[in-house]
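User: I'm putting together a small comparison set for a docking exercise, and I want a reference complex before I start. The sequence is below, and the ligand is zinc ion. Could you produce the 3D structure with the ligand included, as structure tokens?
Assistant: Of course. I'll restate your input first, then give the structure tokens for the complex.
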Amino acid sequence: MKMSTSICKDLKTIPPFYDEAIKMKTCSKCCVLETQDSIQFDAKGVCNVCKQVEVKKNTVDWVGRRKMLDEFIAHYRGKYQYDCIIPFSGGKDSTYTVWYLVEVCKLKPLVVSFNHGFFRPQHLENRNRTLNKLGVDFLTFLPSWKIRRELMLESFRRKGDFCWHCHSGCYVYPVQLAVKFHVPLIFWGQPDAEYGSYGYTYEEIQEVDERQFNRFINLGITAEDMVGMLPEWITMSDLAPFQYPDRDTLRALKVRSVHLGSFIPWDPRAMAQTIHKELGWKFDKVEGIPEEYGWEKVECMFTGIRDYLKYIKRGFGRTRHLVSIDIREGRKNREEALSLIEKYDGKRPASLDLFLKLLDITEEEFVSIAISHCVAPYKHDTSKTVKGEPLWDHDQWLDLLGMRE
Ligand SMILES: [Zn+2]
């Protein structure tokens, strides 16, 4: 498209920084869009995530960080019933974290998993294989479906995100267990500087705390807020699994909550290969992303719905996120990335039918709630909706959900 001279003077409208087809600014390097949370562009149109990754590659002394890890865990090793607690979804990041801390660092962890209720069949196999091969103790918790359903509906209507129970539960459960078992060290996997820039950078060792939980994890809704929004039959004791332990208790126990990825460089593609080789962790297909990313978010039945929602709200799905990582790592060029985005992002997932049945809402309601949370300048056009294909295990989900009639 030919642009007028006056428009070309404005950097904000010059390609590749401005994508004329979708009418949005995009990082001139990695293709992320201006509708991504907390994204900022410099004068050359390069985003803050690209810059963080440069810091990771060029500035951080990873040899020094690895030594720091040894010194850090020496304070905890052998002093408690478990050396640390590892929050574990069974996806690639947490599986790699458990593998690394057990096999490389020789720690004895308590592995803990908040169950959001939608784990896929191969995920469950991967999880059990990992736990057996590493020989670790494991605890899991599945909250009531009646409560989860109300939470999903409420957070979807209010925030356009149905995963409040999962965001909150996954963060709260390990901290509650740290208190219960008197184990003051929690090890997460990937640090936030990897994919976003919520004020965290690779120059610091990020700690997960209540401040972070309330600002970035729980959609700005605490369990105490949530109980007031739900039907009266739900009480605070029903929401206890989503309530962050109080500050005094955590301070008394001196809880430290850190990311393994602050101490070793985080490379999802390489990590997926490692756990595949070492633990027999199997790749899977996910709705709306190319098969080559078979390690990404394979654990949840409704990843495709989350990504579709993101597309309706912000104009991009998981493929754009994945190819942007590959561009930063020098594995894909912009043209390859854009053609994959075109092919995969934004399709209506086949799993939506099951999701609507589960929550008892119509597709019109679903789309109109999603559109009410649109992030400017993106405007969703429902007339361009293309349907996606069902996944290979889709039919088994009915049994896992107890929905087979
Ligand atoms: Zn970028």
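Confidence is low (pLDDT under 50) at residues 1-9. Residues 62-262 form a domain with the Rossmann fold fold (CATH 3.40.50.620).
User: Thanks, that's exactly what I needed.
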